[in-house]
Structure formats: C-alpha cells, structure tokens
C-alpha cells in the first residue's frame, strides 16, 4: 500500500466521527491503518490487570543475548528498567537463542524480539512461554505465545481464488466435469454435476493442503536447522544458497495464502503482497 488518502478511509469507515493514521508498506512489511472514533472513552483500572507487551524492542537486555558479546549499553539498561519498573515478566524463550539476524557474511545475531507479561498472566497461566518460530522470509523470528489450542471448525464450500494459482487446476475441473455421467432433465443434471464437482474439489483441496502444509513444515524445519547451525558457525556458500532457495519456495506458498485470506476477508481495497496475512485472517474470522 503506497498511499493512503481521505477517499480510501471514507470508503472503509465513512466520514463522521473518526480519525486515522497510516504507515506505508515497505516491501512485504507494513501497510498498517489505524482508525478510531472521536468519541471519548475511559479505561478502568481492572481493564489493565493482565498486560501483554510484545514486539521488536530494537535492543538486547543482556550482553549474552548477542552472538558478539559487548558491553552493557544505555538502551539495555532502559529496557531492564522498563521491565522491572512495570513489574513485567520476561518470558523464557523456546526454539532459538536469537530472534534477529542481519543475514550478512559478517553475521550478527541478537535477541531483539520478546513478549512481556504482567504477573497476573503468569498466575493464571503458570506454564506460559514464548516460542521462536522459523524466519522463512523476514530477518526476525515470529514469536508464538503458547496458551491453548484453537480450532475454527469446518467451513462451507466457497471458491478460493488461490486454487487458480495451481497450473493444473483448470484441467482437473474440466476432466471431472466431463467424466460425470448423470441422466435426467437438464436442471437435475446441472445440479448433480455441481454437487459432485464440489466433492471432487474438496477432496483435491484436502490432498493439496496436506501436501503443501507438509512441504511448508519441511522447509521451516530445514530453515530452523540452518539458523541453529549459523548460531555456531557461519554458513558456507552451499548452505546460504540452499536457504535462499527455500525462502523463495516458501514465499510462493505465503503468496497463495495471502490471496486466500484476502478473498475471505473481503478486504479488496488492499493490494496483494502487502504481507498482512494475519490481518486478513483476523478479519475473515471476525465475520
């Protein structure tokens, strides 16, 4: 999203009682719009008993949180003061020692990203922790705050435009349709063939999703293996090229995911490729 205008905001939200601010996209990141009403609101003290603060703090807390150990800096002291002053808990990090890399030959690895929680969260969820997920595209690891599992359940059949990205999809649909042998009046034939076509597509999607998720998992595991290897020794040319190829392959899967979630969210005012799959996901589930 290169530019955000009043016209775009009006289409999204209307003209009355609202303010907005936007951050331009940079490549596959950013593209955030925040809109709020001008009506005043209040927050009671009990609304902030359980606090979670997470993100890229752009500094480490201790010297050993970097692969090149240095001295204690002012920014490190400020981060510790913020955590201690706010009575926050710096959660245990699972899955990696560092959350950021400069991806350069002179390798720098740092723990810049973290999730902080208030003591009330730890009292309610004593086994809460943060897990560093692989970084297939970004130079930062995603952080997962592990609490419980969630399942959205089955969804009704809808045509997903991401299926059309598969080069063989059109041919499969044609073959399935022509292979059906249904007799009766034309309306009945059409209805039965559409019903059967849905079943064929569902089965194909199930198999394709299973195969794709398996491949994505394989890529993430391999990238995680290379990241951990890099924490001990710089990667050679072969390993760096292998990681680059895996990232390109993974980016194609992510691009298809974004097309799918974009359609489900009906957020057609955003361009494909803004890197906001999670935004689309939340909007789709909220409907």
Helicity level, as a percent range?
40-55%
Q: Which class best fits the helix and strand makeup?
A: alpha+beta
Q: How many beta-strand elements? A: 10
Bulk shape = extended
Q: Report on the biggest sheet.
A: 3 strands, antiparallel
Report mean pLDDT, rounded to a whole number: 78
Gyration radius over CA: 24 Å
Beta-sheet strand percentage?
5-15%
Instruction: Give the H and E element order.
Output: HEEEHEEEEEHEEHHHH
Can you describe this structure?
- There is one protein chain.
- The protein is of the alpha+beta class and 287 residues long.
- The protein folds into 3 domains: 6-37, no CATH class; 50-146, 4-Layer Sandwich (Deoxyribonuclease I, Chain A), CATH 3.60.10; 161-272, no CATH class.
- The protein contains 7 helices and 10 strands.
- Strands 3-8-4 form a 3-stranded antiparallel beta sheet. Strands 5-9-10 form a 3-stranded mixed beta sheet, with no helix packed on it.
- Helix 5 (186-232) packs antiparallel against helix 6 (237-265) and helix 6 (237-265) packs parallel to helix 7.
């Amino acid at each position: 999203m290169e530019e955000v205008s009043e016209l775009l905001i009006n289409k999204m939200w209307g003209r009355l009682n609202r303010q907005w601010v936007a951050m331009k996209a940079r490549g596959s990141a950013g593209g955030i719009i925040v809109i709020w009403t001008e009506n005043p609101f209040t927050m009671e003290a009990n609304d902030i008993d359980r606090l979670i603060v997470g993100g890229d703090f752009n500094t480490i807390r201790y010297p050993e949180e970097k692969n090149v150990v240095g001295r204690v800096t002012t920014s490190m002291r400020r981060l510790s003061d913020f955590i201690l002053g706010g009575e926050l808990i710096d959660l245990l990090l699972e899955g990696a020692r560092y959350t950021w890399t400069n991806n350069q030959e002179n390798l720098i690895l740092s723990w810049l990203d973290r999730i902080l929680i208030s003591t009330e969260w730890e009292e309610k969820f004593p086994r809460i922790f943060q897990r560093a997920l692989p970084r297939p595209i970004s130079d930062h690891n995603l952080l997962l705050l592990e609490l419980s599992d969630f399942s959205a359940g089955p969804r009704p059949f809808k045509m997903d435009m991401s299926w059309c990205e598969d080069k063989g999809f059109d041919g499969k649909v044609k073959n399935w349709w022509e292979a059906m042998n249904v007799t009766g009046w034309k309306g009945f034939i059409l209805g039965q063939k559409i019903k059967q076509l849905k079943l064929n597509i569902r089965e194909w999607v199930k198999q394709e999703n299973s195969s794709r998720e398996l491949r994505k998992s394989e890529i993430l595991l391999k990238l995680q293996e290379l990241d951990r290897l890099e924490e001990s020794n710089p990667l050679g040319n072969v390993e760096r090229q292998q990681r680059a190829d895996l990232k390109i392959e993974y980016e194609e899967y992510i691009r298809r995911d974004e097309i799918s979630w974009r359609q489900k969210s009906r957020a057609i005012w955003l361009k494909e490729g803004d890197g906001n799959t999670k935004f689309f996901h939340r909007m789709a589930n909220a409907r």
